[in-house]
Amino acid sequence: MIEFTVNGEPVSVEADPAMPILWVVREKLGMTGTKFGCGIAQCGACTVHLDGQPIRSCSTPVSEAAGKAVTTIEGIAGPEGELTKLQQAWISEQVPQCGYCQSGQLMSATALLRDNPNPSDADIDAAMSGNICRCGTYTRIRRAIKVAAGQIPARTEEGAA
């Protein structure tokens, strides 16, 4: 048994210690918000936080989570399900198109804003460089991060792209 917390809740799972965290979260715990993209830690779709740090869950064995805290996309909203400023900005800026990479994008952006509440374009580029968006919504992602940081106003429905 491997014991750790997921989104603040203690869990105990019976799994091969080499099984990636991604598959434990999705298959053993039934949380399917974290996505499988490439399986080689290159696209960022599987990003979760391990003790607060963004990691690629497709290549990190669950044994690394023992005694630690994992946060998935399901765990970033408030305790009553209220959206974070970043999630609200993601919606106002109409970031998702296909939506597949979005949970990983949001997890990386959440860590960025936690560590740097007023990021520059270079900071955003560096923090988000490991997350690929196949639809190419990078300008919307950057804009949503800036909205969440309070650097620019959110678009109104009339002004949405």
Report on the structure:
The model has no long low-confidence stretch (mean pLDDT 95). β1 and β2 (9-13) form a beta hairpin. This protein starts with a strand and ends in a 13-residue tail after the last helix. 30% of the residues lie in helices and 13% in strands. The chain has a five-stranded mixed sheet with strand order 2-1-5-3-4, sandwiched between helices. α2 packs across α5 (138-148) and α3 packs across α4 (121-128). The protein has 161 residues and is of the alpha+beta class.
Write out key terms for the chains shown:
5-stranded mixed sheet, 5 helices, 5 strands
Helix-strand string: EEHEEEHHHH
Q: How large, in whole angstroms, is the Cα Rg?
A: 16 Å
Shape: globular
Briefly note the structural class of the backbone. alpha+beta
Summarize the structure.
The chain has 161 residues and is of the alpha+beta class. The chain contains 5 helices and 5 strands, in the order ββαβββαααα.
